[in-house]
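Hypothesis: this fold can be encoded by more than one sequence.
Test: take the structure tokens below, design a sequence, compare later.
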């Protein structure tokens, strides 16, 4: 019993330090790779606790291996915007400018009842109150209300009503092709927008466009 207690305490503090170093967020905000790592860590740590005859190193070594692998994966993802987009995915428009995208719901295996439930949880009684419903890469739903609902959501009845939002088209030098096509733009339009700033795609850290077609750009800093 004493051996199990000591092992549990050691692994508890070890995992606490490892997870803190990995920069973990709340479970609902974890990416798929981060969630897998967290589950693996818990499973590996449980093995020597459940079987006191196994050496403690049977858990310590795999824990450090998983930690190292996660740090390396995060490093390479942040160096390659295309890899990051492929692994993490991109935001998906379920409702676009007040119109429900039924084909997108089917592709993401989301029922209308699920969408209605999420919309209610976020404080909207009807789909007609929603101008944008965006399924984020972490699985959460983001809502941009219609102009009629926007002032009420911000608690300011005096503010001008607006439903506009910015859409990211280039992130860290990589084009979000899915978002670009969803908004009705193409590569030639994007090249023309970049020409207006005298920038090439690789030199752009962030390029956005709002619902009026107005673009904004942040140039990538020199490393």
């Amino acid at each position: 019993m004493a051996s199990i207690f000591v092992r549990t305490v050691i692994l508890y503090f070890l995992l606490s330090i490892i997870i803190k170093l990995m920069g973990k967020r709340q479970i609902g905000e974890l990416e798929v790779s981060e969630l897998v790592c967290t589950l693996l860590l818990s499973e590996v740590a449980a093995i020597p606790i459940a079987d006191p005859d196994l050496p403690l190193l049977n858990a310590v070594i795999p824990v450090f291996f998983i930690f190292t692998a996660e740090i390396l994966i995060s490093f390479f993802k942040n160096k390659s915007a295309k890899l990051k987009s492929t692994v993490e995915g991109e935001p998906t428009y379920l409702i676009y400018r007040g119109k429900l995208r039924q084909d997108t719901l089917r592709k993401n295996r989301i029922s209308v009842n699920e969408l209605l439930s999420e919309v209610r949880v976020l404080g909207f009684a009807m789909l007609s109150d929603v101008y944008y419903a965006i399924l984020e890469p972490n699985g959460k739903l983001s809502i941009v209300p219609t102009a009629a609902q926007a002032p009420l959501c911000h608690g300011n009845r005096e503010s001008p009503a607006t439903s506009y939002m910015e859409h990211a088209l280039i992130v860290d030098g990589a084009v979000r092709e899915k978002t670009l096509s969803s908004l009705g733009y193409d590569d030639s339009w994007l090249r023309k927008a970049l020409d207006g700033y005298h920038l090439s795609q690789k030199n752009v850290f962030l390029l956005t466009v709002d619902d009026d077609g107005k673009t904004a750009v942040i140039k990538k800093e020199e490393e």
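Residues 157-161 have pLDDT under 50 and may be disordered. The first strand starts at residue 92 and ends at 96.
Hypothesis status: open.
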